[in-house]
Task: inverse folding
């Protein structure tokens, strides 16, 4: 793990967007298509605003969320809506979206179809992750049902997560798929999350799921 500190979040987002663009370009030198996996939430928006203008062959890039709320993609709680509005624009509009939502009442009804779409694009070439103050990443929450399954070495690609503090069921990539990414970037902002990240170093992944994806990762922090 490589921990990188920045003086402010604006500088971090610009630098990180450039790093991710460079990682994608490097991967495309020896692969016809590559997969970029990104989180939702409020943190990555400014990074997407920079990354979407990067000069690279976006038509050879598949973009996938690390996790998604089980809501229609036009819902204001949808992570898909965020990346459509802030990442899949400008030059990045040419990228192909691999959705984590398919119309169904429950995710279990369509997980097989979603996994069949994702499996040929693995491993993830470049992964961007965030971390919550509770040390969760993607939708792998410390107290979530099925967390042990999501952390297992033989975990499926996707699993439904019903955490006690969330409004909707979510679908998340498993730790196995996240940790298998060829390049991993984790972005955290603020003193509270830095303290949580440092605490996670002494915990088991069942208590601090972020711990399951740190090997070989670049961790980017700004106050």
Result:
């Amino acid at each position: 793990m490589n921990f990188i500190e920045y003086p402010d979040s604006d500088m971090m987002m610009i630098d990180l967007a450039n790093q991710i663009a460079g990682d994608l370009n490097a991967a495309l030198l020896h692969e016809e298509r590559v997969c970029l996996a990104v989180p939702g939430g409020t943190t990555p928006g400014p990074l997407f605003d920079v990354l979407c203008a990067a000069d690279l062959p976006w038509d050879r890039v598949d973009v996938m969320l690390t996790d998604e709320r089980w809501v229609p993609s036009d819902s204001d709680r949808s992570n898909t809506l965020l990346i459509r509005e802030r990442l899949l624009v400008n030059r990045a509009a040419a990228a192909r979206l691999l959705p984590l939502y398919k119309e169904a009442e429950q995710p279990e009804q369509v997980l097989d179809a979603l996994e069949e779409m994702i499996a040929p694009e693995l491993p993830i070439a470049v992964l961007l992750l965030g971390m919550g103050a509770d040390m969760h990443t993607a939708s792998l929450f410390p107290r979530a049902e099925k967390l042990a399954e999501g952390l297992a070495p033989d975990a499926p690609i996707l699993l439904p997560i019903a955490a006690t503090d969330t409004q909707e069921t979510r679908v998340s990539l498993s730790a196995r798929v996240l940790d298998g990414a060829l390049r991993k970037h984790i972005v955290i902002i603020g003193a509270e999350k830095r303290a949580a990240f440092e605490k996670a170093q002494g915990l088991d992944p069942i208590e601090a799921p972020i711990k399951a994806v740190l090997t070989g990762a670049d961790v980017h922090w700004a106050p």
